[in-house]
Amino acid sequence: MSVGTRSAQGVSEACAGGPAELGIDPDQLPDGLVVADEQGRVICFNAAAARITARPAEDALGQRLEKALPLEDLEGRRWWQLTDPYGGLAIRRRQPERNLLLPGGREVLVSAQYVRTGPTGPVHRVVVSLRDTEARRRTERSHAELIATVAHELRSPLTSVKGFTATLLAKWERFTDDQKRLMLETVDADADRVTRLIAELLDISRIDSGRLEVRRQPVDIGAAVGRHIQAYVAAGLAADRFLLRLEQPLPMLWADPDKIDQVLSNLLENAVRHGEGTVTIDITPTASPREGEDTGTSVTVSDEGPGIPEESMNRVFTRFWRGSKRGGTGLGLYIVKGIVEAHGGTITVGRGPQGGAEFRFTLPVSTPAYLT
Q1: Taking a C-beta distance cutoff of 8 angstroms, is the pair 93, 111 a contact?
Q2: What is the pLDDT of residues 47-90, one digit of tens each?
Q3: Least trusted range by pLDDT, from 19-23, 39-43, 99-103, 178-182
């Protein structure tokens, strides 16, 4: 059997440290793997490499590396001629990851490792890793959308703050006390809106980087919900708009009270703003979502509005999802999910008993070891 017509098993065995040594088939690797021998001929071309390059493995095996993998840099220069792995510096051992182009202009992330027979010996193998750029493009698009959304949301309150303060400074004596108070109250409200947007950005940054800190202490979840309801009633909503039901006895919940308040505030605000009828909050003991704990606490917030369309439910906790056109950045539920998961909990969305939206989050009680 010639090198160019190796079977799939031969492809795997041709890779250094193949199945016999590592217990893994190169075709199981998530990234593209291309290996060339000391003569520069391809001896391994795994399934991911075939997918990324749109070239069958059997066509690449046995070919010269520069022919099997004809890469160019962003300035149109042929990559293998430029780097010259077999004839370049004898101390060079790798090429860092960078964007290169396949025929047709498709971008791919490429890094290479040179395996030498000695510290400055000839190249024995060239091991090339290929990664599709689509995941990176999605991340970049998401970041661009985040910046655009927040910039748009910031522009309105900042314009208002600037306009009112400039007007007051220029014409202070012309306004009555009531007019001044109204303008200053508007500036204060808009400053609060800017503060909330900045806090959302910080939360997203911490969630995405895995640095969201949870400072646990005992939390009376029923009292926390009660405070939010009282605030809405004090703001003018009817007390019978809310129904709080607690199932006793509830286990002692150890969580970050500020972040739990943030979760409750977002879910209740969504129910009041986007839902209709009675907003029902059920708090019950339940099985813990975390292995090794027996009990947890479940909070369900439901309304009697039109609910969330079935086709949208899988996007509710993603960035920029909005249930309606009534304002907002579309970041709140993404942050809620991040906070709940940072506590080791879970959150789901569905249709409530009265047809409206129903959000249910479950938290482990997380009792400290010294109390157990």
Answers
A1: no
A2: 999 999 999 999 999 999 999 999 998 888 999 998 999 988 88
A3: 19-23
pLDDT at residue 185 in the model = 92
> Hunting for tokens 């800190």 — which residue is that?
213
Q: What is the pLDDT of residues 246-264, one digit of tens each?
A: 998 898 899 999 999 999 9
Q: At what angle do helices 177-209 and 134-171 cross, to 10 degrees?
A: 160
pTM above 0.85, yes or no: no
Question: How does 268-295 read in b/e, with b if 16+ C-beta sit within 10 Å?
Answer: bebbbebbbeebbbbbbbeebbbeebee
Alpha-carbon dihedral angle through residues 244, 247, 249, 254, given to the nearest 10 degrees: -60
In sequence order, the β-bridge partners of residue 283 are 246, 299
Q: Is the pLDDT of residue 266 over 80?
A: yes
Give the tokens for residue 192.
């609060």
| Count of helices and strands (H, E) across the chain | 11, 12
Tokens of 94: 């790798």
Instruction: State the Cα–Cα distance between residues 69 and 283, nearest whole angstrom.
Output: 59
Tokens of 253: 């919940």
Distance CA 205, CA 177 (A): 42
User: What is the amino acid identity at position 118?
Assistant: G
Scan for tokens 């391809």, then name that residue. Answer: 42
Residues 6+ apart with CB under 8 A from 100: 71, 72, 73, 74, 79, 107, 108, 109, 110
What is the C-alpha end-to-end distance of the chain, expressed in Å?
A: 67
Q: Which helix (H) or strand (E) holds 179?
A: helix 177-209
346 token code pair? 């879970």
pLDDT score for 369: 62
Half-sphere exposure of 130 (CA within 13 A, CB side): 27
| Amino acid making up residue 246 | L
